């Protein structure tokens, strides 16, 4: 089923979510996490993607971001990471995971053998400062809620350390003053 969420304008930043098919914890493997971070940083530097918040969970990621061509940029990120994730599982000879990617592939996707990502990315326009704060808190507290960290600042695959400790992570947060 295709998503009914739409990017309707280029005036707002968006809260987005992208999930690995079948909630497979692909980002428990560092090569897959590295591929996602590489794609996000590349998109910041070369495709005008602005990232204001992020978290990478074992099977999905969230961003608050802005880009004039958001749909194309997210598609590009997902395409790049899908190829790298498939290669990782091939290298690890994880045929059980590859089989799940194959079984869950949509029939109309005849041009590929696997489907790594769920379709769409559920964009929600951030229309107020309160909504930005609520989504930011959701992003930062997601690892704590899931038991992946005791403190938001301890989870390294999140922008929480950038915001609360002013420590630059692997993804630099746009428009954040890192000086104390």
What would you say this structure looks like, in words?
The protein is an alpha+beta fold and 180 residues long. The chain has a domain of 115 residues: Transposase IS200-like (Alpha-Beta Plaits, 2-Layer Sandwich). 39% of the residues lie in helices and 12% in strands. The chain is built from five helices and four strands, in the order E-H-E-E-H-H-E-H-H. Strands 2-3-1-4 form a four-stranded antiparallel sheet, covered by helices on one side. Helix 1 runs antiparallel to helix 2. The longest helix is centred in the middle third of the chain and has 22 residues. The radius of gyration is 16 Å and the shape is globular.
Record the SSE blueprint:
Elements: E1 14-19, H1 30-46, E2 50-56, E3 60-66, H2 70-91, H3 95-103, E4 124-125, H4 129-145, H5 160-165
Antiparallel strand pairs: 1-3, 1-4, 2-3
Number of H/I helices: 5
Task: Determine the structural class based on helices, strands and strand pairing.
Answer: alpha+beta
CATH topology of the domain at 14-128: Alpha-Beta Plaits
H/E element order: EHEEHHEHH
Average predicted confidence as pLDDT: 92
**Cα Rg:** 16 Å
Strand composition percent: 5-15%
Largest sheet: 4 strands, antiparallel
Helix content: 25-40%
Physical arrangement of strands within the biggest beta sheet: 2-3-1-4
* Total count of strands: 4
Kindly report the name of the CATH homologous superfamily of the domain at 14-128: Transposase IS200-like
Shape type? globular
Q: Kindly, what is the distance between the CA atoms of the first and last residues, rounded to a whole number of angstroms?
A: 47 Å
Uncertain runs are: 1-5
CATH class call of the domain at 14-128: Alpha Beta
Instruction: Assign the CATH architecture of the domain at 14-128.
Output: 2-Layer Sandwich
């Amino acid at each position: 089923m295709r998503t009914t969420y739409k990017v309707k304008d280029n005036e707002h930043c968006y809260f987005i979510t992208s999930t690995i098919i079948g909630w497979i914890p692909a980002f428990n493997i560092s090569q897959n996490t590295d591929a996602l971070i590489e794609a996000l940083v590349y998109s910041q530097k070369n495709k005008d993607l602005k990232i204001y918040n992020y978290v990478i969970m074992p099977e999905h990621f969230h961003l608050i971001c802005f880009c004039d061509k958001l749909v194309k940029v997210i598609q590009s990120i997902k395409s790049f990471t899908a190829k790298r994730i498939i290669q990782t599982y091939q290298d690890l000879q994880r045929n059980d995971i590859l089989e799940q990617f194959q079984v869950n592939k949509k029939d109309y996707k005849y041009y590929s053998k696997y489907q790594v990502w769920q379709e769409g990315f559920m964009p929600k326009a951030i229309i107020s400062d309160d909504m930005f704060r609520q989504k930011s808190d959701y992003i930062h507290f997601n690892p704590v809620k899931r038991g992946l960290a005791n403190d938001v600042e301890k989870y390294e695959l999140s922008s929480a350390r950038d915001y609360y400790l002013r420590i630059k992570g692997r993804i630099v947060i746009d428009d954040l003053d890192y000086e104390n």
